[in-house]
Amino acid sequence: MVSIRSIPSTPSSLTPGDLPWIIEHREDRCTLCGRCTAVCPVYAIKLTYMRQRMPRLVLTSNERGSSFRTFVGIRQKTEIANKCIGCGTCAMVCPNSAIRPVPNPMSDRFRFQSTVGGEPVKRGGRRNDPAPGLLDKIIFNRISMLTDPALDAGRHEFFLNTLLGRVLSPEEYIRRKINGEWIPPVREIFPFIIGSMSFGALSPNMWLGLLQGVAYCNEVLGIPVVMATGEGGCPPWVLKSPFLKYIILQIASGYFGWDEIIRAIPDMQCDPAAIEIKYGQGAKPGDGGLLMWFKVSKLIARLRGVPEGVDLPSPPVHQTLYSIEESVMKMIQTMSMAWNFRVPVYPKISGSNSAKSVLNNLVRNPYASGLLIDGIDGGTGAAYNVSMDTMGHPIASNVRDCYLDLCAQGKQNEIPIFAAGGVGKTGNVTQNGMALIMLGASGVHMGKYMMQAAAGCLGSEQNRCNVCNVGICPKGITSQNPKLYRRLDPDQVAQRVVDTFMAIRTEMKKIMAPLGRSQSLPIGMSDAICISDESAAKRLNIKYVC
Amino acid sequence: MTEAITIKGVDEKGNRISSKDFEDLVQEAFKQSSQLILETYGQHNVGGRLNPKGNKLDIQIKGPAGQRLGCMGMPGTTIICHGSASDDVGYLNIGADIIVRGDATNGVCNAMAEGRVMISGSIGARGLTMTKWNPEYHRPELWVLGSVGDTFAEFNCGGIAVVCGVDPKTPENVLGYRPCVGMVGGSIYYRGQTDQSYSRTNVMAVLPDDEQWQWLISRLPGFLEGINRRDLLDQLSVREDWKMLQSIPPQDRALMFSGPMPMSEFRKNIWDKAFGGDPIRDLAPGLDRSPIGLIETGDLRRRKPFWANQESAAPCAYYCPVHIPTIDRLRLMREGREQDAYELVLEYTPFPASVCGSICPNLCMQNCSRQMVDESIDVAMLGRAVKDFPAPAVAEPLGKKVAIIGGGPGGMNAAWQLALRGVEAHIFERDDKLGGKLAQVIPWERLPRAIWDAEVKRFMDTPNIHVHFGVNMTKDKFTELQKEYDYVIVAVGTHEPRRIPFPGHERVITALDFLKGAKSDKPPAVGKQVVIIGAGNVGCDVACECYRLGAQEVTLVDIQKPLAFGKEKKAAEALGAKFKWPVSTKEVTEEGLIDAADELIPAQTVIVSIGDVPALKFLPDTVEVLTVGGAGWIKTNDACRTSDPQIYAVGDVERPGLATNALGHGKNAAHAIIAEIKGEEWKPFTKQVINLQNLTPAHYEPETCPGTHTDIAHADIHEADRCMSCGTCRDCHMCETICPTGAISREKLGENEYKYVSDDEKCIACGFCANTCPCGVWLMRPF
């Protein structure tokens, strides 16, 4: 038995220096206002009383004794459950700049102790790889000054949109037109798409704020932005609203919320932008969606048709699908039929060696409207750390292979490939997106970037914050607790969405103008990009420069 | 007035002169004349860089003009082109008046900073682009009689354009497609139809104000003069026909950058209207999603403080088998209620001095939180302090009788508890004295006789307690008791020593018999060498008694690692006892103990001390017995009730334990019986022990010499101050003081009654109260 006097030492006992984030508190500045401890999402810090012994030992007068001084400070807890996540909300509320988390430069022993209760680490966020990605290294090197018509991003008009849907070859289009046959639906949309984040993964204020911003982009600015729902369904009033046309509804193996969608079909004022069939996700390939119980509030339970407060793991695969041909055929046809073949339907897969096989099946499927490939750097609201960090396929070569495959078949203009996974990971969202577009993508999806840009998500690839899974988001982005998500003003989210897309629009022009392209998106324009990494250049079949 | 010089753009052979050579001729001629007639043949950059230095220079262009006519024109220069001109008329012009009596193509006035360009026809694309205006000079002007081409006035900084719309090339759109992109200064007057594609972030459509109109109407004749169209003056002097595009001032443009419509307006007029209310009102009726801050009070806090006074148990009360609330006793002492404090202890046990103060290993002290600071509270001393305090007054009789078989600690506490609460308690004891093993076998060294006698006397003197000595219990007698009494409590303990049937076992004395004998008036004789089989705490007691009775060498043997601990072990070791293990006894002979390895441990006396078991022959069949380790033990529930509802069993008959365990059982059984008599529900002690992390030991100063208090009269007061009052408010006001928002206050409820409350409307849930509370009373909980 460990005596009470002693401090027990267990295999999991840690010191603040073993934790990934260290709280730096300046007692000389602290006013003891209590805000930091009140706001800390994980209650990592507390007011701590410390006792200091002050010996009184005077040799000459033979005076001996000790007195004690008590002092206070804000100190961090070392229990795993309360470890500082580095979000810095304490610093945000401190009136005196007296407190802040600093990343621990030493190896954090916490990693070895995080499997409390035999449960491996689950978290939200992205692959913890803070280094700039390959996309960041791609440079646009075809600068038309005198050789091509010089375009001015500020003055010229640009056609920046992309096509989502099956584009028939001219002969086929004319033939069908003459015979009055079905023409596949095609949407003209902005090539930067808000990637699928579910109503559930996101708080109501975040999700609706995004949609409000998207609606503004379309209706006020004329930027045809669309957003994907994720597999949590869609509030019925939204389904019946005129804004549904800006929404890509996702269907995934959990089928959450689809009863409400089907129920709303007769009352819909317009068709959704598209239907996304999720087979995989870049952040956690081979794993289904996961909404942890913390976030299954009454509201979410109601929308999804499940009990309150239960974990909602979706199966890794749709349970009625057995082969790739069947999957593609069955799902695409069912979903196309739901809106009488008026809505584009495309699958989303995680980046993988097998992406080309999927694509080739889609090419042969008359109803498939595209393919979305989600690379390893994609974000998620909840996944096992091991899936997030170590599984998947980087998006660049995956998209490139698929695009070149289409080129070889002469189908590159007929079935669009969309890319996702780490677009804007280091903040270079337009550059990343345009690089992917020039590698062959028709557009890109961005989820995590939107949380960061539109709502101030604090998460980083240094594992900062990343507590989306447990519903304690200090910004209120991924929480279902109104005490947290009300911190997020939907109007401000919407405004940031607008700011973001306005800026992307301008940056796209800034990239496209020097290429001499203004009237079509430079999809697959790989002669305009280069990289200073020889092996990457070789692999991607683009120019190597140095 | 000098004579006009004519320069031909074609040489004598009819070949075109290069622009470079033509320029040399023009510069040479300019030195001689201020009137130049240039018969150009497509030469470029003609008419510029000729500085009349305050005088006038007239240039007539006769012949096909090249590009950039009037390029870098200087003030004072007038260039009249008698026909249409090519691209970039007035390029980088800084002051010349350039008249084109015809059309001009693209790029008119590009980068012009001063001067006038007057076109009697229409112009091509990108007119008036990149103009400049230095306030020390005049604004550049472009006058066009007809229409202008696309992308007009891009990046126009200060130029003024007048587009008259007379015989325009593009009558449907006199300003061309998307004019004014990037235009930051200047203005455009125009007549006629446009496609309204002007850049709305750069210019606004206005009508000329009086000053602007005045400017236009005063300058118009000069233009018409220049292009020889005075006839149009009336037609162009109709103010209603003129409109303007005016550059937006920088301040206004800054406001426009947030987008063309404020988000709040979009939400109100478009978003909310489309839904007719909150878009999730059907899913979550009445849900308030309005924005809040990071620091909130009231229901918006994620957790709030609870004053959990006495909700969790102090370790002393929790670990004590009798659950004596030492912290309450010390609190009463701090409040100056010494009598109440003593009485409180006696409500729990008749033996605070004998058990707590002497023989108990004091689980309360072993777990005392004060050890986080220095040493535990001295509970033993506190116990001894109650030795001479009288028994509490007994309650009104309840008219019930309980028979208690066995007068050991379990039975005695049952009787004590019953008696104090008004129930007649009859103890039936086989021996001639009370106390069971406490009195019979525990050496007086460990349980001083004076203490024991005083507490037994207090017990015996208590009303409602009746003791019947020398009663041997039998089945028949038991049946009688069942009839005569409302309840029977079996508290006979374990008085059947375990034995091992090795050869020579008849030579071996049992520990029980030995200790009883040793404590009697006629103690047994003991050899010089003694071996004790079984090295537990009883074995240690035996060893001590052996030494007292003359032994010189005592060896305790065991087949496993000795279980002895604490005071008993230390006492035996202090006297010289040796522990030997593993030793498996093969035989006991006259010489001593022979182990499995045939080694002899010499001994004249061998005592076996491997425990005792209950003797339960008198029990009726209705009482279920559990057989463990070859002996039967009575099966009971939390209330010590057996399978026969009339019969309870307490103490070692259930399972062997400390005297304190027996006291605890006795209390439980008595309280369960009283509850049933009163028709109340009896509840076992279920409080959780306090989480030590909730305490704040830093508030206490460690004492350099703790635990050496001998002055009993005052030592307990000192202990009261040392107590950390785990889980019980000590009314220190520290929470009230530390609370940064002044949310906490103390509410007086009555005499010695109070509570601390936190005002929900002030509290921000910082948790400082919980972090500060010395006693762990304030807890932060989600709500």
What can you tell me about this protein's structure?
The complex is a heterodimer of chains A (546) and B (783). With 546 residues, chain A is of the alpha/beta class. Chain A has two domains: 16-119, 2-Layer Sandwich (Alpha-Beta Plaits), CATH 3.30.70; 134-544, TIM Barrel (Alpha-Beta Barrel). Chain A has 18 helices and 21 strands. Chain A has an eight-stranded parallel sheet. Chain A has a three-stranded mixed sheet with strand order 6-20-21, covered by helices on one side. The radius of gyration of chain A is 26 Å and the shape is elongated. The N and C termini of chain A lie far apart (66 Å). The mean pLDDT of chain A is 93. Chain B has 783 residues and is α/β, with parallel strands linked by helices. Chain B has six domains: 1-78; 103-277, no CATH class; 303-309 and 731-782, Alpha-Beta Plaits, CATH 3.30.70.20; 315-389 and 691-722, no CATH class; 401-495 and 614-678, FAD/NAD(P)-binding domain, CATH 3.50.50.60; 496-613, FAD/NAD(P)-binding domain (3-Layer(bba) Sandwich). Helix content of chain B is 26%, strand content 18%. Chain B is built from 22 helices and 32 strands. In chain B, strands 1-2-3-4-5-6-7-8-9-11-10 form an eleven-stranded mixed sheet, with helices on both faces. In chain B, strands 15-14-13-16-29 form a five-stranded parallel sheet, sandwiched between helices. In chain B, α17 (537-548) links the parallel β19 and β20 (553-557). In chain B, α7 (326-334) runs antiparallel to α8 (338-346), α12 (409-420) packs parallel to α19 and α17 packs parallel to α18 (566-575). Chain B is rod-shaped. Chains A and B meet through α1, β2, β3, α2 and α6 of A and α5 and α22 of B.
- Computed structural class of chain B: alpha/beta
Number of domains of chain B: 6
* Radius of gyration computed on alpha carbons of chain A: 26 Å
The count of helical stretches of chain B stands at: 22
What's the total count of β strands of chain B? 32
Sheet-strand content of chain A, in percent, reads 15-25%
The gyration radius over C-alpha positions of chain B equals 57 Å
What proportion of the residues of chain B is helical, as a percent range?
25-40%
Main β-sheet, spatial strand arrangement of chain B? 1-2-3-4-5-6-7-8-9-11-10
Largest sheet of chain A, order of strands side by side? 9-19-18-16-15-12-11-10
Mean pLDDT of chain B: 92
Number of strands of chain A: 21
Spatial gap, N to C terminus of chain B: 101 Å
In CATH terms, the superfamily of the largest domain in chain A is Aldolase class I
